[in-house]
Amino acid sequence: MGAIGFYIGLPFIYLISIIPFPLFYGVSDFFFVLLYYVIGYRKKVVYQNLKNSFPEKTHEELKTIERKFYRYLCDLFLETFKTLTISKKEAINRCAFTQQTTDLFNKLNDEKKSCIIVMGHYGNWEWAGNTFSLLLKQQLYVIYHPLTNKQFNNLMYKMRTRFGNKLYAMREVMREMIKNRNEINATAFIADQTPPPEGAYWTTFLNQDTPVFVGTEKIAQKLNYPIVYVTVSRPKRGHYLVNAEILVNEPKSTKEGEISELHTRRLEEDIKKQPEIWLWSHRRWKHKRPAA
Fold first, then answer.
1. Average pLDDT for 261-283
2. pLDDT score recorded for residue 6
3. Scanning 103, 144, 172, 232, which has its CA 20 to 30 A from the CA of 193?
4. 108 lies in which domain range?
5. Is residue 29 part of a domain?
6. Which residues have CB under 8 Å from 75's CB, separation 6+?
């Protein structure tokens, strides 16, 4: 989308963001029909990912998950725009934190410990980040890839920082985290990106050889920040529930690959519980494991 296309689309984006929720998901249903039945966006990629991940499921079961995923994808896309105008009260109502989660982060804050959050493209991670800043005391930093389109990048930046979050560009994470060591904060890593095959940690994830970024593990070991695994489930449409647990207390005492294996296994468990709310359109398995 060029600058002209962005400015043409901007009023539509804001219109989506102010539609009342009772009508909002009706609009999303329209986009689902368009995306799934008319455009067929990445349907081959999604189905093949599902088939490889769940070889025990029938074709009918896979197609059911596929359709549910596309409905979720349309909801997620429009819900992201909703962050432009959503009220603080509605944000908290739509993305609640369990008591365990609040207690865990409050305890870390009281102990004056910064932490690293690991999570996946599961549920609505954008809403979870915004609600974090409304409910909890730590400064939250979210890692992001700057977009090539300057206008759209600025819009995403505005949405992600509206309630107090701050952003780290991917290539500046380590430097910025060291600079902010005297601050009690939490830094969120989305741990299911696709790294280059060389230098990645390789494991089996959803029945497939999968590379995992080692950067999260190396930073955690260097700074020795506790690692918190966060999951964002969807109990019903338009509502999310955030739950957190300590994954590793002392990263510096872990072996190579241990942290990567732990958060990969937890994400896999979550996906198996509610597979339709993971980002199946992502080309997660485009690389092959290098020969030994």
1. 97
2. 74
3. 103
4. 3-277
5. yes
6. 25, 28, 237, 238
